């Protein structure tokens, strides 16, 4: 009996840990794509701080877009807060394109705060 309770407790802890890291659904909590280890400030073509405050029983979402004449080599979408009840994904374009659409969303009753940086040459 004690082993069963111990096993159930372990499974519950693992499930909570997995849920808090994965964000909403299958979308990652944060996003770093491309060759960001060599990104320099002079190549940053887009910077935006997106945030939505939580509203009870409401899902918050928006799409952020950038289009230019340079090719994207690094895309960073980093959370200001470590609340993992939100997610991000690239819906169009991205690395090796000259445009990107980024979908940002939260679970019902939660908001989000992200810094979006696009580096291109």
Structural features, described:
The protein is of the alpha+beta class and 121 residues long. It has one domain (2-120). The chain contains 1 helix and 7 strands. β5 and β6 form a beta hairpin. The longest helix is centred in the N-terminal third of the chain and has 21 residues, at 2-22. The chain starts with a helix and ends with a strand. Residues 2-24 have low confidence and may be disordered.
Please indicate the count of domains: 1
- Main sheet summary: 4 strands, antiparallel
Strand content: 35-45%
N- to C-terminal separation? 62 Å
Shape: elongated
> SSE order, as H and E?
HEEEEEEE
Strand order of the largest sheet: 1-4-7-2
Question: Uncertain segments of ≥5 residues (pLDDT<50)?
Answer: 2-24
Structural class estimated from helices and strands: alpha+beta
Gyration radius from CA atoms, angstroms: 18 Å
Helical residue percent? 10-25%
What is the average of the pLDDT values?
Answer: 83
Tally of contiguous helical segments:
1
Number of beta strands: 7
Keywords: Signal
InterPro entries: MBF2
Signal peptide: 1-23
Features:
single chain, 121 residues, alpha+beta, four-stranded antiparallel sheet, three-stranded antiparallel sheet, 1 helix, 44% strand, elongated
């Amino acid at each position: 009996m004690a082993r069963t309770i111990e096993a159930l407790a372990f499974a519950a802890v693992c499930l909570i840990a997995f849920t808090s890291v994965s964000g909403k659904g299958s979308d990652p909590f944060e996003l770093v794509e491309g060759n960001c280890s060599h990104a320099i400030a002079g190549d940053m073509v887009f910077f935006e701080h997106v945030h939505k405050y939580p509203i009870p029983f409401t899902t918050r979402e928006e799409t952020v877009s950038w289009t230019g004449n340079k090719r994207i080599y690094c895309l960073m979408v980093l959370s200001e807060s470590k609340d993992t009840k939100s997610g991000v994904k690239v819906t169009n374009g991205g690395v090796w394109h000259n445009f990107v659409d980024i979908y940002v969303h939260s679970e019902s009753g939660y908001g989000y705060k992200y810094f979006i940086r696009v580096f291109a040459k």
